[in-house]
Fold:
Amino acid sequence: MYSKHPLEGNKYIARVGIQAPDLQDDSRPLNVTLVLDASGSMADGNRIDIARQAAESIRQSLRPQDSIAVVHFSDVVLNGLTVRHTSPGDAGILRSIQRLQPGGATNVQAGLNQGVQLADDARRRRPDAINYVILMSDGVANVDATNPFAILETVGDSNNQNPLRLVTIGVGIANYNDYLLEQLAQHGNGWYRYLDNVQQAQTTFSEANWLNLAIPFADQTRAQVSWDPSMVRTWRIVGYENRVAADVLFTQDRKEFAEIPSGTATTVFYELELTDQVFQRQASTAKFGDIEIRWVEPGSGASREQYGVVSGHWRQEFDTLGDPLLKLGVVVALAADRYSGLPYSGYVGYSDVNWELSDLQRRLRLLQGQLGHLTAYQDFTLILDHMTRFVPPEPPRPSESGYSP
Structure:
């Protein structure tokens, strides 16, 4: 997809996406280890309720051939609530999930250490199983290691043929460490999801959705787009700052590259400045570059690669795009990009960011009739309202006297 940039008239927006096939008929058993944050910060709002519902939904979605274990932690592991791997219907598992309650400090390292130990024991007993360690937390680690890389040093896994896949499930808004949870998943060979409410927890891990999420199609996945310099003068990825890797690393199989679950899609938006040659063309569809995708096949560990062409219709105005979900995706990506670039030191750029967020807010309202029934649309409308209010058109400047007020 290519369209005129909604914020910058001299640029274009390009969407590049990859889609994993659906592998729901995969019969390999699963070993799932739930690591549940029972610290005091989980008492805020409905965090405990969300985590408890997510854990129970996963338990209910598991098949008879799967196994599950539960670990609770606050400042230490709550051994009285630990249940080693057993069948999903085991009464002890259900009781442990139901007894999740907040209290104490947050020792993510201790919880994950115990969870990894249980998961490794299960993997040794069933080497043919897919293994997940699922951390549910607000990420507010404040005991022992609090840095994601320090935590991963103690829970690292060197088995690349059948890895322990660290999945992180985030809950909460205020006092929430998104960075910790995202980095743990990225470098733990897993994936990260954020849950806003109990219903979302139930839907995300319903049986139909879980079967897709739990079956990996590709490990250590990365893509590289090579833009044709005769067509594209400049380009920039919107977001994904901590996923960008040096060219020399692209051909290497590395754990921090992404896991792609079965049936899922990954989308990247680019800002492009096109060359004069493009505008001299009569055809409205053109090839703009090539894409190379590399990944590791789960189970066998074999390296795979695939090549494709990046092409599309480039004369499309953003407002005339027919897909409202595509428009929503562009608005979300650009809003996050502009907000993350806010100049926190100094005041230059505040008015520009405010104008751009306000314009994206206007475009989002135009999608109300088509997308207003979607929870995702409603949630992001609220988020964008807060973002726009946080960035005043003209922020107060420091006193000219040189003295604090």
